[in-house]
Backbone:
């Protein structure tokens, strides 16, 4: 172990994968699940890195300290705000990258600040075969284009499989079990541990996230939106400074929130 990165090697050869929790410091499901697994953890084949990511944010029980760590996994040239290159999150991302570089697949565990959040997964179509057997009703894709710099983006860009799971509300008591079940299924499907292949999750919905709204001044949402709520063309989503922002077509809204200053206010998506 070094720096909250725990590596396990199986007796037989096999793929290398990474499982990560707390890229955002106030999302405890992944870390609770990893901490529970650690004392008796072993794999039959390959290698796994278990990583507790945002140590400083965990200490302070905040999502992030200097920047969103889930935008820090990208090439230096893509940082519009150069100050972010000096951030704790960027430095920690640089420490984690070599582990991702040797991994074929990543399972990155998150949760949501919204109390009514529907659990869902994020990946691109080349990982649908795995997420189709994880316990999530919604599979979303398209995120690499609308917000580069996520852990999954980093994996996909280098030809691996990046999978993020959002295990509902931060304090949802089912979150850690959902994370643990997902870890187990992921390790079976990647061939690192033995076990029955989990069945396909019935009635999974595929959602394509195609647009992100970046604030111009300050954004105030018109009302609370549930993640993946369907909204109608013309509905007011919020106000950016003085300007009303409306849905331009019937759409699905994700992660709508108030933003002070420049930031990401909401994502729009389509059901496929
Ligand atoms: Zn998160």
Residues:
């Amino acid at each position: 172990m070094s720096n909250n990165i725990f590596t396990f090697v199986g007796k037989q050869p096999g793929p290398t994968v990474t499982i990560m929790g707390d890229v955002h410091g106030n999302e405890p499901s992944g870390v609770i699940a990893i901490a529970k697994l650690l004392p008796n953890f072993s794999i039959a084949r390959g290698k796994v890195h278990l990583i507790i990511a945002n140590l400083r944010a965990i200490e302070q029980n905040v999502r992030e300290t200097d920047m969103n760590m889930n935008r820090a996994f990208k090439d230096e040239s893509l940082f519009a705000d150069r100050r972010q290159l000096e951030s704790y999150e960027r430095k920690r991302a640089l420490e984690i990258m070599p582990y991702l570089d040797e991994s074929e697949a990543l399972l990155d565990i998150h949760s949501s600040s919204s109390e009514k959040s529907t659990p869902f997964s994020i990946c691109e179509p080349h990982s649908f075969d795995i997420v189709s057997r994880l316990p999530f009703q919604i599979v979303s894709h398209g995120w690499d284009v609308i917000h580069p710099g996520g852990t999954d983006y980093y994996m996909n860009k280098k030809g691996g499989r990046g999978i993020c799971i959002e295990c509902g509300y931060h304090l949802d008591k089912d979150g850690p079990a959902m994370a643990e079940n997902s870890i187990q299924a992921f390790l079976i499907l990647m061939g690192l541990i033995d076990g029955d292949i989990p069945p396909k999750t019935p009635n999974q919905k595929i959602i394509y996230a195609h647009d992100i709204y970046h604030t111009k001044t300050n954004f105030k949402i018109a009302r609370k939106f549930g993640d993946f709520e369907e909204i109608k063309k013309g509905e007011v989503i919020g106000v950016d400074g003085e300007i009303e922002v409306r849905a331009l077509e019937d759409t699905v809204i994700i992660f709508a929130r108030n933003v002070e200053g420049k930031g990401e206010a909401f994502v729009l998506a389509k059901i496929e």
Q: What stands out?
A: The mean pLDDT is 95. The longest helix spans residues 175-189. The pocket of zinc ion is lined by residues 23-24, 27, 110 (CB under 6 Å). The chain has two domains: 5-189, 207-271.
